Amino acid sequence: MALRNVRIDGDPVLRKKARKVEVIDDKIKDLLEDMAETMYDSEGVGLACPQIGILKRLVTIDVGDEHGLLKMVNPEILEISGEQVGPEGCLSIPDVRGFVRRPEKVKFKYTDIDGNEQIIDATGLLAVCICHEIDHLNGILFTDLALEGEEAEMYEKLYYGEEE
Ligand code: NI
């Protein structure tokens, strides 16, 4: 297994739509393993395949919850509800944080490495993360969605406190 180079904002590959994976062979399994290794090495909680320069609909996530490491093929959102706003960052946009409005609950499905369909009802951080990673598969970065102006300032104060 190997660490992969994470592509940085400005690289055109991050703006392209990734293609569906039709067959889960050893190459795909190795790719997901490399993605997980790269994600942990960079101390990220999620990684989408375009971030290592390959336009396949593959995502790894580990938000430290009961699901552990999720290796996902063709993840897809089924239902969303509610709303949450929180700070986000991205391995492809180093040293940038921004507040993004996301659904509070996200029901999503994916195919696991054994070819079985899995469905997860996510809330909180996992809900944010799956939205962020599926956006990557569609060429969208969180900075496209981040709040601006007074609204952003309000959340910054709420999260980080008033500046001295
Ligand atoms: Ni990201």
What does this structure look like?
The protein has 164 residues and is α+β, with helices and mostly antiparallel strands. It is built from 4 helices and 7 strands. The model has no long low-confidence stretch (mean pLDDT 96). Bound molecules: nickel (II) ion.
Please work out how many helical segments DSSP would assign.
4
Rg: 16 Å
Which regions have little confidence, pLDDT < 50, spanning 5+ residues?
Answer: none
**How far apart are the termini?**
47 Å
Structural class by helix and strand composition: alpha+beta
> Level of helix content?
25-40%
Bound molecules: nickel (II) ion
- Side-by-side strand order of the widest sheet: 1-2-3-6-7
Averaging pLDDT over every residue, what do you get? Answer: 96
Main beta-sheet strand count, sense and barrel state: 5 strands, antiparallel
Topology:
Elements: H1 26-41, E1 46-48, E2 58-61, E3 70-81, E4 84-90, E5 93-102, E6 105-111, E7 117-123, H2 124-137, H3 142-145, H4 149-160
Antiparallel strand pairs: 1-2, 2-3, 3-6, 4-5, 6-7
The structure holds nickel (II) ion.
Outline of the structure:
The protein has 164 residues and is α+β, with helices and mostly antiparallel strands. The protein has helices at residues 26-41, 124-137, 142-145, 149-160; strands at 46-48, 58-61, 70-81, 84-90, 93-102, 105-111, 117-123. The protein is built from four helices and seven strands; from the N terminus they run H-E-E-E-E-E-E-E-H-H-H.
